[in-house]
Amino acid sequence: MNITYISLDGHVELQKYRYLYFLIMLTGYILILSCNSTIVYLIVIHKNLHEPMYMFIASLLINSIIFSTVIYPKLLTDFLSEKQIVSYQFCLMQVFSFYSSSCSEYLLLAAMAFDRYVSICKPLHYHSIMTKRTVIIFLLLAWFVPPCHIVVPVIGRANAMLCSFSLKAIFCNNSVNYLFCVASKALMTYGLVVLFNLALFPMLFILFTYTVIIIVASRSCREVRRKAAQTCLPHLLVLINYSCLFSYDMIIVRLESNISKTVRFVMTVQMMMCNPLFNPIIYGLKIKEIYKHLRQLFYKVGVK
C-alpha cells in the first residue's frame, strides 16, 4: 500500500528550542485537560447544575478537550522527532476532526444564546421550551451536523493529485489546499456553503439573539439586567475570543506568502492554547454557581 507523506514546515528553529517547545505545549495540554475536566466534573456531580445552560457549558468544554486532543499528541511527538512528517491520510483525518470540533463550538454557542434568550425574554415559558428533549436535540445537532458537512470535502480530496508535499503549518489545517495540483471549484464552492452554515449563520444568530436580550433587559427591572449581564457576558467573551481565533485560521491561508514564518508559528500556538484555556477560566470565574462549587472543591483539597 502506497503511503504519501507530508512534511510540516511551520516550525521555527525547532532544533534549538525543541525541548522548550515541548515543555510549554505539554504544560498547556495538561492545563487544558485538567481545567476543562474539573468544570465538567462539577457540572456532572452537582444536581443544581443539571440545567440546560450548564449542560451546554459542559459540552463546550468537552469539545475543547476534543479540539486539543486532535492537535497536541501529534505536535508533542513532532517536537521530539528528527523529521516532522505526517501521512496524507492522517492529515486529512486531522483536518476533518479539527474543523468538525471547531464548527461544533459555534453551534454550541448558538444553542447557549437561544437558552439565554428564552430564560431572559420568555421566563414564564422557559421550562416548557427548554425541555430535556430540546437540549438533547441541540446537542445532537451540534455534534453531528459539522462532521456531516466536513466529511464531503475530505472524501473529495482523498484521491486528489498532489503537486506539493510541504505544508507551511505545524498541523494539518486549511493550508492543505495549497498541496493540490488543481483546485476543485466544486469543493471551493461547497466550502463557502459550509462556512456560512456552520460559522457565519450561527454567529449572526448569536448576535441577533444577544441584541434582543440587551433591548429587553434595558427595558426591564434591575434584577433582569443583572441576570442578563451575569449569564450573557461570559458567553459573549467566549464568542469574541473564539471568533478572532477562527478568523485567523481562515485568513492565514489567504496570506500564505505575506506573513513571516515566526508570526505564523506564534499565532498558531496562541490559537491552540488560548481558547481551550479561556473557556474554563471564564465559566469557572464568571458563572456564579460554578464558581461557588469550584471554590468549595479547592477548599476541600486545601484542607486535606
Automatic annotation (TrEMBL):
MF terms in GO: G protein-coupled receptor activity; odorant binding; olfactory receptor activity
Pfam families the UniProt entry points to: 7tm_4 (PF13853)
Domain G-protein coupled receptors family 1 profile: 35-283
Subcellular locations according to the entry: Cell membrane
Protein's membrane topology: Multi-pass membrane protein
Keyword rRNA processing belongs to the record: no
Sequence intervals crossing the membrane: 20-44, 53-72, 92-114, 135-156, 187-216, 236-253, 265-285
GO CC annotations on file: plasma membrane
InterPro entries per record: GPCR1_Superfamily_Member, GPCR_Rhodpsn, GPCR_Rhodpsn_7TM, Olfact_rcpt
Domain of life: Eukaryota
Family statement: Belongs to the G-protein coupled receptor 1 family.
Name this protein carries in UniProt: Olfactory receptor
Protein source organism: Cyprinodon variegatus (Sheepshead minnow)
Record lineage: Eukaryota, Metazoa, Chordata, Craniata, Vertebrata
